[in-house]
Structure formats: C-alpha cells, structure tokens
Amino acid sequence: MERATIDLFERSSLRDEHFHRYTLASMLAEGRVVDCACGIGYGSTLLDQEKAVTSYLGMDPSEEAIRYATENYARPGFTFTVGTLEDNSCEAASVDTFVTLETLEHTHDPERCIRNVSHILKADGLLIGSVPSADYEELCERVYGPNPFHLHRFTHKDLEDLLGRYFNSARMFSAEFSMGTLFRPLDQKTSDSSAGQIILRDNHLNKVAGSLFFIAGGKARVGSALNKLGLMQKFLQSVPKIVLDQEEVEPVRLSFQRAENMIRQRDEAMAAQAKLLEERWAVMQSMEEQIHQRDEAMAAQAQMLEARWAVMQSMEEQIRQRDETVALQIRGIRGLKSVLNAVSEKIGSEVFLKMLQNKQHPSTPFLDMAFSLYLFIARLYQAALKAGAQDLFFFSREGQPLKEMFDLYLSYKDSPATIRTHYLQVSRRSTFLISLGPLSQERFHVLFRQYRRIALIDFLKSVALEGHTLSLAQALGVDVRAFETVKEDLPNDPLFQNLLKLKVFQQLYEEERVSRSTAFERYLAGLAGGSIPELLHVVDVGWKGSIQDNLFNWLSHLHGEKARIEGYYLGLVASGGLTVRNAKTGLLFSNINQLTPGFAIFNENRSLFEIILHADHGSAQRYGLDANGNVQIVQDEFKEKKMIEEKVWPVSQPIFDYFGQLAAALANIPLAANDLLKFTLKRHARMVFHPSQEEIDWTFSVYHVENFGVFEESRFGNANSRVSRLSQMMFTWHLLRRRRPSELGSWPWLTIKIRALPGLDRLYSWFRRWQRR
C-alpha cells in the first residue's frame, strides 16, 4: 500500500494507521501548511481539526490523486497541486508547518529533500513527518517480501543525524500500530479513550517501532509542540478485534472454504472421468469387429482403384485423338480469322461492324451502348496491363455487369494476362463510417462537401445509424420529428452539434466504426487471398470516386503512408479526394486536368450508364460479423427490384449480348484505337442527340434511387408534360444567358427539346458534336 486510495477506506486497520498519523500532526499544525505526498487529500480535513490552519497546500506526484483530491476536498484556502518532496516551488521562509508522512523512504535523495524543507520553512516553522523504521522494514520483508517502492531505510540514529544537520531541534517518537486490550471505567464521563497507562507484555515485537514519527524546527517551536502533545505516550484507539477479524480473517476463512468445495468437486469430477474411461475402454474393445470390417472394405476399395487405373490408362488413346481434333479445330479457327481479316480489309472494319449491328433487334433501346461499354472494357484491360495489376476489384452495384463483361473480354484473348477479378459489395453509405476517424477529429468532409442542406435523419442514414433515431432523440430531449427537419447548413446547426457532444452517440459512433471496420477488413482479406494489400486497383462507373475516397481513408488507417489506390472509371467529372496515392482515371471520358476526346458526347446523359449497369441486389448498407465470426453484408431494401426486372433488364440484356458479339468479333478483327473511338462516338452521339421515341419513352419510365446524403428517387420527368410557349421562351432566355445550369438535369439535350424553343435542341446537338473535335 504505497498511497492511501479509495479502496484503503474499506479496511479499517489500514485506514486508522494513516488517520492516526494525521490526527497527531493536527495537534501541532498551524498557519500556512504544506502537506507533501498528500495522496487523495483526506489529510486536509484531519489537519484542520484544531482550526489553527490558515491555508493548506497539498502536493503529490500523481495527477490522478490530485484530480480526486481537488474534486472532493478543495475549498477556500485549501488547494492541491502536482509536486514532489525533491522538487517543489514554495518560496523561501514562507511555510509555517510542513507535513510529510511516510515519504522520505520513497525519495532518491533524502538529504536534498530535508534541505529543501529547511529552506522554505519560516524561522519558527515546524517540520512534521514519519518514516518506516529500519527494524519494521526488515520484519515486513521477511513476511511480505522486498518492497520495490522503498529506496531507503532509516534507523533512529540515521534520522536524528539527518535532521540535526538542518534544524536546531528535533524530537522523534515511535508509532506502533498493535493489538491490545483496553480497560477503562464506565462511570466516568470522558471521551479521552487514550488516557491511562499502557502495559507492555514481555514480547520483543512490542519493541519494534512501526514508524519513526518526528518533529523538527527551532527550539522554541519544537518546545511548544512538545507541550501541546503533553506526556508523549498516547494511545489512539482503532477498531475492535471483531471488526479486524471480519475484515482480515473472515475472507481468508471463506477462501479456504471455497477451496475445500472446489477440491470436493474436483474429486467428484475425477471419479466421473474414471467411470467414463472405463466405459470408453469397453466401447474400444467392442470396436475390434468394426475395424476388421473396415479393413475388408478398404481392401475392396483398393481393388476398385486398380480397376479404375486400368480404365484411365485405356483412355490415353482417346485423349491423344481428342488432342489431334482440337489441333485441327485451332487450324480451322485460324483459317477463319484469316478469312475474316481479308473480308474486313476488303469492305472496311466499320462496314463489318455495321453488318454485325444490322443482325441485332432494331427495337431494343440504346443498343449502341454496347460500343461504348466495349471501348471502356478494352481501355480498362490496357490500363490494368500497364499498371501491372493482378487483382481488379469491381465496385457494386454497376461493377457486377462490368466484371462479367471484363471476364468475357478476357476469355476471347489468345494469351490474356493473369488478372483476377473480384466483385466488392460497397457503397458510399457502407464505406463512409469505416473511413472516418475518432469523432473528436472528424468533420465529415466527404458528406458535407456535397450535401449541407439536409436533415439530421439524412446524416444518420449516411452513417447507417438511423436505427437509433428514437433513443438519440430521447437523449437529446427533442421530438423525433425534429430529426426530419431539413437544415440549411446542417454542419453548423445547434441540434447537430449537440448530437456530436452526446455521450451515448459518441459511444455508439466509436463502437460501430470499429466493429464495421473489423468486419470489412475480414471481408476484403477474404477476397484478396488472406491479407489486405497496400495497393488496390478498383473499377467503378464514376463520377467523382467518393467510394474510393472512403476506402483510401480506411486503407490509410491500416497501412499509413504505404496505402495506395488506383481507380479506373468509365467517366470522371470531379476529382474528389484525388492525390498521388489516391489516383483516378476516367477511361471513357474525363474533365480532370483537360477534356478527353469525345467528352461532351459521352458525358451527355451519363446517368444512362448507371441505370443500364444495374446489379440484381440492393445497395450495401453496413458490415458485421455473426456469432461464428462470419462476415455479414447488410443490404438496403431493393426498392428498384420490380423496375429493374420489368424495365431495365429487357433492355440491358440485349446490350450485354451485343457486347459479347463485339468482343468475339474484335478479338479476331482488331480495329485501330482511333477508328474504334470514332465509330463509338458516332453511335453514342446517335443515342444522346438523336434518340428514337421509344428510347425517350423508356428513359421517362425508369428512375434512380439515391442512398447517400439524400435518400430519394430521381426521375427524368414526364413524357406527356406540355410546356407553354412563354415558358419555352423564358427557359431559352435563361439558357442563352447561362443562368440556372442545374435545370438542364442529367440529360441536357432532352431537357432543351422539351422546355426550350423548337430547334434549339438541334443547335445544342451540333454544338456538342463540334466540341468533340
């Protein structure tokens, strides 16, 4: 016990030993008092029993102890600070009484400590202290073992010599905490429980001083102190023996009793195990017949294996014949390629592609999308080769059909590079919380850089914590409907700031952040072959790369400065968190640094890619582990399921089939990259600037669901809406003045055709085609 802690007060004997020292010191303390090694501060109350203390300063090297003392014992004139006996900041000759109980033995330089005390005491000041006696230390070491916290031992003479070098007068006393029997008359009205004669039994242990209690200072002050103490053989009554037994002996007795019960239970368990062993031995003996039957079965299996081996040897001739057939087929395929190449050279690759196109069903909307997707997949393959990528992670949900097309493209290559593809179920929502840091350091930049005018419930949905809305509202003392009110600037809204300060939210945030990150790490490691690589190559449709930004932040938490991500996108229109280590490339179109060829055409109605490239499941919401430690990916409700099945798949499937035919044909009849780009731009421009009425009607029949920042459906509009000529004139005026660009929507050409003056859509189409040059 090196400091009196809160636990000490549960043991009466230890508590009273400390209290008695302070009680004796309180008889002598007066004026300005410094209590060095004050611990948790309980001595400040005891020292003020005589009301002679005008100010009190408690010092202790433990910040935790000083914090507790300040919270529980500080009051006007009574303060606490961190400090030690060897280094203190008290002014010279400024202290009336300096108290340091059971402290010197802990210091590295007791001489320096006593010199410091003599320097800060007034001329008539008094030092009150105590140290364990050398005899008592030796006895404790035999009983309890060495005390690593005690650096020095003091005999009576050692302490007397040390004090004599710095003080004119010093007196020492023995403090002995021992058991005895107290006899006192009951017919006297007195509270002096220490009065009377102390009779010592002839026992050498009675002569061992537990502590050497000392006072030192000027002769006058020491003499005054001795007068206050009176006849110096005082007995400060402690606890009755029954209480000591209850606190010290009874727990030991109960421990022995529990040990006896455990031994009895162990004996019973051993007896049960012995019985079980006997039963098992009987079972093992009865298994001999079964082992014999097993040996016979194994012998029969060996005969069957020999027969199968003979069959396999007889198949060698068949395999040789098959190889010859395959070789003939390969020569035939090569001959077919030569014929196709010759035809292509004669009629031109573009004519050949048109011939292939004419074989498709003409009524399928946006069938030309197959060319744009092929160009992207071809460029993706070249980019992956150049980067030396061995694994490509396709982000859901658009990544599901993109991965299938990439795998199909690889299957048509004569000698494809070894590139493993993985479908990674991620979303901005599922990766947002795991990308964040501790709440105290977080500003939610990825969310608020785009979405500031949102409701508090939208923020909770974005971190997938909306299931706790009711409990959080109750903790904040607000109606749950307040969470649904849209705020003009949510990051600076008082309700949002109060949520961040809420302890229950802070705990929920950190628990979910850590647990989801752990689950996602296990999920990604399973796809990556057991460990998370420092470099990830990822693929997504676009347009800013927010999911990649989230993953890069998460990966940086894992690998620090070594974390890198290379992102390959169908299109990029904003850089997001792009850096050297978080690289992004728009393979089909991009406006980062400069516009890529055909940007104005590919970027027109880019949301068409998102709708056609749709997966067969809902968006990933969060990650977790089940009771067996298996990864669980919780998905949002698949609200678009019916629309996808009835509207999207009947259109997207023919596009994917056409893509497969293109991949097969162009694998045998390579088309120059520039020719492929020109042809693709023509077909894509046809879709976005001269769509059929069926394509326009189909566009109006589908919608897209946002699942981050805002949570709502977005549609292209109403195909049957009628716009007045005045409205067309006003819209055209604002358009030509470049006002309200956001009103153009995701398909500007269609918006202009519907809302602007007639003919302006053709002018817009011409302008965009001219821009591609």
UniProtKB/TrEMBL annotation:
Residues 35-128 form the Methyltransferase type domain. It holds the Pfam family Methyltransf_11. One of its GO terms (molecular function) is S-adenosylmethionine-dependent methyltransferase activity. GO terms for biological process: methylation. This is Methyltransferase domain-containing protein. Keywords: Methyltransferase, Transferase. InterPro entries: Methyltransf_11, SAM-dependent_MTases_sf. It comes from the Bacteria. The keyword Methyltransferase applies.
